[in-house]
User: Fold these one by one.
Assistant:
Number 1:
Amino acid sequence: MAINYAGGKKNPDLEAIQSELYADSKTLRDRVIDIQEGFKSGADVYESKVSVTMKAGSTDAVTSDGSINLGVQKSPVALKSIEYSDVIDDAVLFGTRFEKSMAAGAFNQVSSEFDKKVLIQVAPAIGEDLENHLWNGATSATKVAVAATTGLTASFKATVAAMPTSEFDSIPVRALWNDSNSKTVAGAGVADSVKLTGITITSANIAAEYSKLYAGAPDKVINSTSSEPRIFAPLAHRQLIKIANNSVGAAQQINFLVEGSGASEKISYNGVAIEFHPMVNVMILTLPEYLKVLLDLSGDASYLEVDKMANGAQKRYIKNKQSIATWVTNQRYITIQG
């Protein structure tokens, strides 16, 4: 980890250090979707589907005729080992305000002030980056596979191609392309999700685009009583929704319900709550338990190991390590608009 110090030296210091603003990493913290822990290298995900056929009543013995079909499929999901790590050279801080908090002695060059006010920001920065990858990113291999498939529109292909190259596939990518054995056509290929074409969203058309998403979703999802459906949308939509709700003129119409403010604010469309995440050019409407993150331990995201380097080196290493994968189930009940 290179310490980048900019500025002069030996000047009087402003007491406060103005820190970076980090985006909220709510997926793992608030568990807005299904977070499953306890996996290091892989996991088996099971899905079941039962179909029944009505027939005329009979007093005869029951025979096997396939009118009740019990289906179970298993899909192995490989987790990817990822890490954030680097080396800290504390000697860069000599001659700065941080030198004051270094203990006496040539071997002591760790600044307690630097650790408390700067190094402490590594954890929220990791949280922000992980949140970004959960909702926007694809591996190099998946990008190649999506580009070569014939089952996706050019716009969806372009969306995946434009995503940052990641160590694992994000949730929107899984909703478009995966290798689940529970699909109509099992194995690697286009997902069974409901795919809708949208346009670039602005404050002028955001209500119309949400209407397409809502109307295009399976009625089983919208009318579910076992779980509440959710819309997962880009962070920027929060601003566009409020601009649309507060438009001036004859066309003014309140299309979204906004309740509360700040951390307790809730926004919904036609009774469906909206969750905002760092997504780009896609929206998803489904039951939240169908979107999954598989982990070794959710606490790994905030755990940092900081220690001295070996062999007398006067430097420290910092490391965070995780095992992670995203997955989707019940794909025919996931609606994605792009």
Note: The mean pLDDT is 91.
Number 2:
Amino acid sequence: MEWVYRGFETSLLALTLGLGLAALALLGPVKPLEGGYSVTLPMLTVTAPR
């Protein structure tokens, strides 16, 4: 019965990896700001000056 749980866990890990890679593939190119680089996440913004 352990093989069922191990297979379920492996399939969830594979699904997570596939969704993560698809999300990265769908991202557009990063456009740097004039004064530096900026990373914007849903609830966080980080800006680094040049």
Note: Residues 10 and 21 are 17 Å apart (CA to CA).
Number 3:
Amino acid sequence: MNKRQRKKQAYKQYIRAIFEGYEKMLEDPSIAELHFSYLKETTYLERDDQAKIHFTTKEK
């Protein structure tokens, strides 16, 4: 498998993990936050005071 295909596969896994984490947070309100990393970015899923889930992506 070449480098481009590996990066593409890793990115697909990153996106899939974010949405699976989001589903987990919907099912279990006790989860306050989750973090997912891919290359130079990190995505945070966090709950606010009203228990709404927010996505935040930051560059490292």
Note: The beta strands are 33-38, 41-47, 53-59.
